[in-house]
Specification:
Elements (H helix, E strand, L loop, with lengths): L1 H9 L7 H7 L2 E10 L2 E12 L14 E10 L2 E4 L9 H18 L10
Antiparallel strand pairs: 1-2, 2-3, 3-4
Length: 117
């Protein structure tokens, strides 16, 4: 995960910048799960955000820390794989990500990006 974050910051992506991480109360959890060994910066990881901190004015989760599975097409192209803040615990997000990866490996395919409404 550290090498992915370094690559992202080197390429001037805002996602892991100190200001962005502080504003959203973000934390990165666990490992970076590569889609394929030949594509080291394409894969999945888990973040958490907390909407009640000194930088935010909205409190959709009333200060609760929520977890999101992220998909990285590259160090500068990161999107939500799950719904933003979909999981209430890291364990739930990790279990969902593990199940998704297992299903994809078993089918010998790349997990499809869901349509987020």
């Amino acid at each position: 995960m550290r090498s992915f974050i370094r690559a992202s910051l080197r390429q001037k992506s805002y996602f892991f910048s100190e200001a962005t991480m502080q504003f959203f109360g973000s934390q990165v959890h666990g490992d970076f799960y590569e889609c394929h060994p030949d594509e080291p910066h394409r894969g999945y990881f888990i973040t958490s955000e907390q909407d009640e901190n000194e930088f935010t004015t909205t409190h959709a989760w009333e200060g609760e820390r929520r977890f999101t599975i992220r998909y990285a097409e590259s160090p500068t192209s990161i999107s939500d794989y799950s719904k933003f803040g979909e999981y209430s615990t890291y364990e739930e997000a990790k279990e969902a990500l593990s199940a998704m990866i297992y299903k994809a490996v078993k089918a010998n395919s790349h997990p499809e990006m869901p349509t987020v409404s």
